[in-house]
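Lecture 7 notes: from sequence to structure.

We start with a single chain of 74 residues. Read the sequence below before looking at the structure.
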Amino acid sequence: MSDERRQLISKRTRAAMATPEVRKKVSDRTKVGIAARKEWSCELAALRVVWRAACPEARRRFIDEIFEALCGDG
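Now the structure, written as tokens:
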């Protein structure tokens, strides 16, 4: 990306973020996202630990079961 393009994007971003309403909307959505992640991040970490500890055959079977649930048997 050229410097001119980067400067144009930066200028447009500053202009769009100039209003308090936009800044508040971004802030509120960020807070919602952080709160949502906090709810499931511990569970995701636990799943990663178990996944790494599982043997390849157990992993394969688990993935097969997920796809069966999502796509059906055939």
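The helical segments are 3-16, 20-53, 56-71. Keep this in mind for problem set 3.
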